[in-house]
């Protein structure tokens, strides 16, 4: 797929199924992610790839965090938390691993991590796969961070759910560029 076509046709797809991207596809997608703008080459990001049984264990971490927040959590909500990671055959956890640097403020590193995730999403799309960038309260919960082995100071930029689009999803309406772009200074 041509680069501009990938940029304007990428969309978030919630309904995902097998097949998941194979290792060669993921390798190329991670190469794209690692080309994100990165002031002073701090590499403020890393990734965890979760497949198969790992998705079940992630659901268990979501459930443990939910029960910690609300010990009276009902069965429906418990089952929902367990099932969340099963919505896709593959999950990539984008981890922000911010560095202390007197010339690169934290916000630049967060933007770099976001750009890296966008590159990852675009690369998956360009290779024929669908994805959804998800966050939610569990992306910030200490129990989830611990279960995933995050180091002190690391944070989750998002869970990238990836796979093959299942069924028809809605195509977002096009936005009018002029609604978001203006010249400066204005005459």
Description:
By secondary structure, this protein is an alpha+beta fold. The protein has one domain: NADH Oxidase. It has six helices and five strands; from the N terminus they run H-E-H-E-H-H-E-H-E-H-E. It has helices spanning 3-9, 23-33, 52-69, 75-83, 106-126, 142-147; strands spanning 16-17, 45-51, 90-96, 130-134, 155-165. Strands 1, 2, 3, 4 and 5 form a five-stranded antiparallel beta sheet that branches. Helix 2 (23-33) runs antiparallel to helix 5. It is globular, with a radius of gyration of 18 Å. It starts with a helix and ends in a 22-residue tail after the last strand.
Give the proportion of residues in helices: 25-40%
Spans of at least 5 consecutive residues whose pLDDT stays below 50 are: none
Shape: globular
CATH class: Alpha Beta
Average pLDDT: 95
The overall number of domains is: 1
The CATH architecture is: 3-Layer(aba) Sandwich
Feature tags:
NADH Oxidase, 39% helix, five-stranded antiparallel β-sheet, alpha+beta, 187 residues
Gist of the model:
This protein is α+β, with helices and mostly antiparallel strands.
Sequence-ordered SSE layout with sheet pairings:
Layout: H1 3-9, E1 16-17, H2 23-33, E2 45-51, H3 52-69, H4 75-83, E3 90-96, H5 106-126, E4 130-134, H6 142-147, E5 155-165
Antiparallel strand pairs: 1-5, 2-3, 3-5, 4-5
Helix pairs in contact: 2-5, 3-4
């Amino acid at each position: 797929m041509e680069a501009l076509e990938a940029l304007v046709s990428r969309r978030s797809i919630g309904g995902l199924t097998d097949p998941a991207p194979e290792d060669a596809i993921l390798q190329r997608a991670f190469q794209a992610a690692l080309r994100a703008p990165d002031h002073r080459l701090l590499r403020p990001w890393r990734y965890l790839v979760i497949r198969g049984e790992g998705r079940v264990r992630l659901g268990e971490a979501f459930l443990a965090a939910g029960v910690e927040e609300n010990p009276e959590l009902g069965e429906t909500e418990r089952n929902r938390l367990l099932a969340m990671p099963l919505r896709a055959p593959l999950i990539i956890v984008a981890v922000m691993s911010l560095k202390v640097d007197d010339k690169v403020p934290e916000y630049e590193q967060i933007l770099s991590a976001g750009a890296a995730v966008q590159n990852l999403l675009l690369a998956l799309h360009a290779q024929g796969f669908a994805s959804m960038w998800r966050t939610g309260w569990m992306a910030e919960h200490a129990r989830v961070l611990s279960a995933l082995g995050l180091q002190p100071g690391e944070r989750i930029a998002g869970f990238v759910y990836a796979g093959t689009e299942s069924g028809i999803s809605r195509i977002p309406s096009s936005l009018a560029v002029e609604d978001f772009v203006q010249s400066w200074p204005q005459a």
